[in-house]
Design a protein that fits this description.
- This protein is of the alpha/beta class and 361 residues long.
- It contains 15 helices and eleven strands.
- It has a seven-stranded mixed beta sheet. Strands 1-7 form a two-stranded antiparallel sheet.
């Protein structure tokens, strides 16, 4: 599970208050490719990704492999097409685990890399990971994933990011420069490219409010019930309060409980997310990059005001996922699989029946 701003506003073409008008690039469509290329080389990943002098943070990750990958030779495995799935704020790679398995069941020649971003999951200091050097931003989170791919000698064909992770994968693409060494398909799941601000009524379960509330809880925490009562009395929904409790673990000192994530770093990351504008990437994408957005039917975002039209005018696509809220991969995984499926190729016919069963669940 990952949280996202409710009723956030996006400013089309107004990034950083510079009032840049979104320019429709007539050649944008011509620069996009949606074919499935061969797997590239890790040496083709950018050597320098951001101007920050801080080193990339080591990330916890796992590879979910299709059957044809698991039983292939070492030589064959070097050419395996790989998708990278990136979770949202306050989430972890486990949020996308089921959807990753759905992908490799339908496309057994693929493998999926799941990562825990800095300050999250098993990459956090609280869970035994190494400290990440600040600043903690969308850009440095993207730099971390690029460094991991280079370390693992992988060049992905596909980048998939949910919520905060959507801006991370767009930043990864942006850090490549003007031209990609191989075509890359990027999927942005229910987030907007521009600055996002809280606004309007209905701020229930807003991530900025939740982060602030969690930071006010003194550590170590005596018991889970006290946290549950505090969150529900503070106006957070029962499902969110229950989910928060899954992120508690016994304190290493043996007294009470602590969070499995690094809240101070996460607060900085979320501030960066709200301010980060990726319209520039959409206006001038690297050659070989295709960007598709998935908009949830019950999205927490304000997609009105021509945002989808502006994205499509720049040569990218926006898909509407019916019967889904912000957590698209959990609310309607089958529908999301159908939207994204053509990017992976032809679904394995032997697994089609099993795939249909997964979609009904």
């Amino acid at each position: 599970m990952a949280l996202h701003a409710q009723h956030g506003t996006a400013m089309v073409g107004f990034c950083g208050h510079r009032k840049r008008q979104v320019r429709v690039l007539a050649s944008a469509t011509a620069t996009l490719t949606r074919s499935v290329p061969h797997f590239g080389r890790a040496s083709e990943l950018p050597k320098r990704t951001v101007s920050s002098p801080s080193p990339p943070a080591p990330l916890a990750f796992e590879l979910v492999k299709g059957n044809l990958v698991r039983f292939s030779s070492d030589a064959q495995s070097k050419n395996v097409p790989t998708a990278v799935l990136v979770h949202g704020i306050l989430g972890s790679r486990r949020n996308l685990h089921s959807f990753a398995h759905m992908i490799v069941e339908g496309f057994p020649s693929w493998q999926v890399m799941l990562v825990d971003l800095r300050c999250h999951g098993e990459s956090s200091v609280a869970s035994g990971g190494l400290p990440a050097v600040g600043p903690h931003t969308v850009q440095t989170a993207a730099k971390d994933v690029l460094a991991l791919l280079r370390q693992q000698r992988l060049f992905p064909h596909m980048l998939v990011g949910h919520s905060f992770g959507g801006k991370v994968v767009m930043s990864m693409a942006q850090q490549f420069g003007a031209q990609l060494p191989r075509p890359v398909q990027t999927w942005v799941l229910d987030t907007l490219p521009g600055e996002v601000r809280a606004g309007g009524p209905g701020r229930a379960d807003h991530p900025a409010d939740l982060i602030a509330a969690l930071r006010r809880i003194p550590l170590p925490i005596a018991d889970r019930n006290g946290v549950m009562d505090y969150l529900t009395q503070s106006g957070f929904s029962l499902p969110v309060a229950r989910w928060v409790l899954t992120n508690l673990r016994p304190d290493l000192g043996g007294v009470g409980l602590r969070w499995t994530f690094d809240l101070e770093g996460i607060a900085e990351m979320y501030d960066s997310y709200e301010q980060t504008c990726m319209w520039g990437l959409l206006q001038q994408p690297p050659q070989g990059l295709a960007v598709d957005f998935v908009r949830a039917e019950r999205s927490n975002f304000r997609w009105e005001g021509g945002i989808a039209d502006s994205i499509q005018a720049l040569g990218h696509r926006v898909h509407l996922l019916r019967d889904a809220g912000h957590w698209v991969h959990a609310d309607n995984p089958g529908g999301l699989f159908d939207i994204m499926g053509s990017s992976f190729g032809v679904v394995d016919l032997h697994l089609e029946r099993a795939q249909e069963g997964s979609r009904r669940r």
